[in-house]
Write a sequence for this structure.
């Protein structure tokens, strides 16, 4: 999730610190479902989708067309976009623009899935792309929310990849995380499940190695154990320095929740609140308090398993640091993080630290300025 902050300046951070033994496995499929992106039917050799998806499946390509928005043309060695999109192809980077790296997609096949553009300069076609010919064997119908195929009897030269009534077997449910140790026990959600423990708990693994797969029935019965971090959406904070005053301040309230999962989750988790100035002037964020219910500023606090705690910090603007007008306020951003003490200085060992670090937009108006 991304961060939440209302006009009242109450933002919500959903936080679960990592387990005592650092846990970092990564969930790929929600328990009780199969792989939702599984291809049920592909377009076959002619690249045209001829099959209508049954109820519950998703029509990945319009009947009578190719699979849309496939990468068609990539940036060449000079990293300069020289090709203009033709037909209904989509120009991803403007002609004359620059690419961050060679082979970056600059044009895709658009809604009809047919390549309609000719590379110019040193731009190149992506692999398998031929002008005017939709790529073969691309998705026509994919599995829907439950990950189970519903569509049978493909039309034309379309190919049935996944039989109706089943989910793709032995797909990755849990991957090894950055700590390089398997931490998740298979079938911890459904003890009668058929998920497969590919790497034994406690054994070494490399990031993105499959730790648990979905077994023969293709349905995930396992949830990754470890940090469960989430942040809401933070709307810009508006701060005013009143006329005749040298500073403006606001208190920001945070709610911290411990939503760890797993039988090995501890009774509570210690954490601290940290902040970086980002593009804001030094001293913008101060008075970080990990437990607002305890008198005085608390550098750290414990959040009970399944519980929550209130935290706060103060934002301050100094008139010497900002210049604004009524039409053009001063804007900057800073980051606030919830950091598990047993993984500090890393926020945690999960794959996506952005989930427990929020970027806050601050908008300052100095009413001493004209």
């Amino acid at each position: 999730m991304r961060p939440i902050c209302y006009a009242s300046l109450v933002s919500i951070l959903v936080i679960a610190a990592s387990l005592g033994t650092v846990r970092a496995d990564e969930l790929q499929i929600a328990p009780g479902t199969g792989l939702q992106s599984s291809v049920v039917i592909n377009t076959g050799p002619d690249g045209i989708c001829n099959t209508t998806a049954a109820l519950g499946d998703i029509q990945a390509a319009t009947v009578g067309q190719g699979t849309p928005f496939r990468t068609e043309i990539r940036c060449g060695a000079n990293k300069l976009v020289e090709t203009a999109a033709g037909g209904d192809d989509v120009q991803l980077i403007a002609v004359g623009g620059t690419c961050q790296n060679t082979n970056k997609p600059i044009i895709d096949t658009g809604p009809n899935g047919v390549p309609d553009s000719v590379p110019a300069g040193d731009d190149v076609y992506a692999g398998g792309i031929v002008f005017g010919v939709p790529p073969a064997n691309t998705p026509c119908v994919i599995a829907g929310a439950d990950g189970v195929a519903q569509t049978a009897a493909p039309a034309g030269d379309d190919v049935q990849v996944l039989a109706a009534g089943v989910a793709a077997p032995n797909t990755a449910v849990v991957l090894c995380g950055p700590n390089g140790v398997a931490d998740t026990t298979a079938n911890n959600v459904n003890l009668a499940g058929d998920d497969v423990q590919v790497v034994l708990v406690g054994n070494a693994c490399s990031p993105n190695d499959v730790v648990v797969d979905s077994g023969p029935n293709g349905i995930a019965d396992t949830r990754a154990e470890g940090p469960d971090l989430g942040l809401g959406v933070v709307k810009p904070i508006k701060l005013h320095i009143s006329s005749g005053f040298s500073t403006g301040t606001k208190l920001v309230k945070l709610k911290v929740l411990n939503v760890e999962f797993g039988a090995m989750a501890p009774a509570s988790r210690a954490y601290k609140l940290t902040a970086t100035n980002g593009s804001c002037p030094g001293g913008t964020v101060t008075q970080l308090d990990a437990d607002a219910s305890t008198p005085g500023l608390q550098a750290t606090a414990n959040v009970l398993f399944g519980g929550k705690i209130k935290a706060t910090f103060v934002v301050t603007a100094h008139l010497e640091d900002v210049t604004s007008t009524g039409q053009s306020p001063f804007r900057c951003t800073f980051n606030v993080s919830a950091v598990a003490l047993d993984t500090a200085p890393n926020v945690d060992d999960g794959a996506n630290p952005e989930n427990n670090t929020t970027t806050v937009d601050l908008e300052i108006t100095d009413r001493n300025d004209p």
Remarks:
- Residues 24-32+167-225 form one domain.
- The chain is about 0% helix and 30% strand.
